[in-house]
Write a structure and sequence with these properties.
Largest sheet: none
Number of domains: 1
CATH class: Mainly Alpha
CATH architecture: Orthogonal Bundle
Shape: elongated
Strand content: under 5%
CATH topology: MetI-like fold
Radius of gyration: 25 Å
Number of strands: 0
Helix content: over 70%
Number of helices: 14
CATH superfamily: MetI-like
Distance between the termini: 42 Å
Order of helices and strands: HHHHHHHHHHHHHH
Structural class: mainly alpha
C-alpha cells in the first residue's frame, strides 16, 4: 500500500513538469516561415537585398555619384558602367544603391515613428475610455477626413530646403491614424479582462498596466500591422518622389530613378535608367508583403491559442 501511495504521489508531482508551454510568438512565426516557402524565400531575398544595398551604399559618396559627366551621357550598360549612365552622365549603380537605401530608411522611419505615436494615442484612448476616448476619436476622425496625399504635397511645396528628416516628419503626420485605431480597439478588449481589473484593484499604476501588461498582449498584432505598413510607406515615398514631391533632386531615391520612365525616349530606348529601380521596389514590397502575411497568420494562431 505504501509503495502504491508513493507511486501515485510521484505521478502527481511529475504531471505539471510534463505540461507543454504554449509556443511563443517568435516560435509561431518560425513555424509559419518553414511551412510557407514563399515567405521563407522572401525573408532570405529581403535580407540579401538590404545587405547589398547598405554595404554598397557605405562605399559610395552621394556628392560624387551626383556629379555631371558630359562625356558619358546616356551610355548603355558596359563593363565600365554595369547599369549604364543617365542623361547627366552619372553612373546608375551608385544611384540605385543610394536610392534603395534612402527609400527603405524613409519608409522604416515613417513606420517606426508613426507606430510609436499610434501606439501611445491608441493605448490612452482605449485604456482611459470615456471623455478621453471620445476626444481622441474625434481628432482621429477629423484627420482621417483630410486628403492625405494632397496635404503632403502642399506641405512639401511650402517648406523650403527640406531634407530627409523633414520628409519623414511630413509623412508621419498622417501615417499614425491606422495604428492608433487598431491599438485602441485591442486595448478596449483587453481592458475588460480579469488581469487588468485585478491590477487596478491592487492599485497598480495605469502607466504600468498599459505598458507592462496590456501592450505585451497586443504586441503581435502591432508587429503585423507595422510590417504591412512598411511596404505601404515604401510605395508612398516612391510615388511622391516620382511625382516630384518627394526627396530633393540632389538626393537619390528609387522614385527619382523610376521617374526617368516619364520621358518617352527613356521608356522605349533607355531601360537601364528606370527598369532596375522598378524591379527592385517591386521585389522589396512583394517580399515584405509575403513576410507580413506569414507574421499575420502567426499572430492569428497566438490569438486563438490565448
Amino acid at each position: 500500500m505504501e509503495k502504491k501511495k508513493e507511486k501515485s504521489s510521484d505521478n502527481v508531482h511529475s504531471a505539471p513538469a510534463g505540461l507543454s508551454q504554449p509556443p511563443s510568438f517568435l516560435e509561431l512565426v518560425g513555424k509559419e516561415l518553414m511551412q510557407d516557402r514563399f515567405a521563407l524565400i522572401s525573408l532570405h531575398t529581403l535580407i540579401a537585398i538590404l545587405i547589398i544595398v547598405f554595404l554598397g551604399a557605405a562605399f559610395v559618396s552621394t556628392p560624387d555619384s551626383m556629379k555631371i559627366n558630359l562625356a558619358k551621357l546616356n551610355n548603355a550598360p558596359s563593363a565600365q558602367y554595369l547599369l549604364g549612365t543617365d542623361a547627366s552622365g552619372r553612373d546608375m549603380v551608385p544611384q540605385l544603391l543610394l536610392g534603395a537605401r534612402n527609400s527603405f530608411l524613409i519608409a522604416f522611419g515613417v513606420t517606426l515613428l508613426g507606430g510609436m505615436v499610434g501606439i501611445l494615442v491608441g493605448l490612452c484612448a482605449g485604456f482611459y475610455g470615456g471623455k478621453v476616448d471620445h476626444a481622441i476619436m474625434r481628432v482621429l476622425d477629423f484627420i482621417s477626413m483630410l486628403p492625405r496625399l494632397m496635404f503632403i504635397i502642399v506641405l512639401v511645396s511650402l517648406i523650403p530646403n527640406y531634407n530627409v528628416t523633414t520628409f519623414i516628419l511630413i509623412i508621419t503626420l498622417f501615417s499614425w491614424i491606422g495604428d492608433a485605431r487598431l491599438v485602441r480597439a485591442k486595448t478596449l478588449q483587453q481592458g475588460s479582462l480579469d488581469y487588468v481589473q485585478a491590477s487596478k484593484t491592487l492599485g497598480t499604476s495605469n502607466i504600468i498596466i498599459m505598458f507592462r501588461e496590456v501592450l505585451p498582449n497586443i504586441s503581435s498584432l502591432i508587429i503585423v500591422n507595422l510590417t504591412l505598413n512598411l511596404a505601404g510607406n515604401m510605395g508612398l515615398e516612391t510615388g511622391l518622389t516620382f511625382l516630384g514631391f518627394g526627396l530633393p533632386f540632389d538626393t537619390p531615391s528609387l522614385g527619382t530613378l523610376i521617374g526617368y520612365a516619364a520621358i518617352p525616349e527613356n521608356m522605349q530606348r533607355r531601360w537601364w535608367q528606370w527598369l532596375p529601380a522598378s524591379l527592385l521596389i517591386f521585389v522589396m514590397m512583394l517580399c515584405i508583403n509575403f513576410l507580413g502575411q506569414a507574421i499575420k497568420r502567426a499572430a492569428d494562431s497566438k490569438q486563438r491559442a490565448a
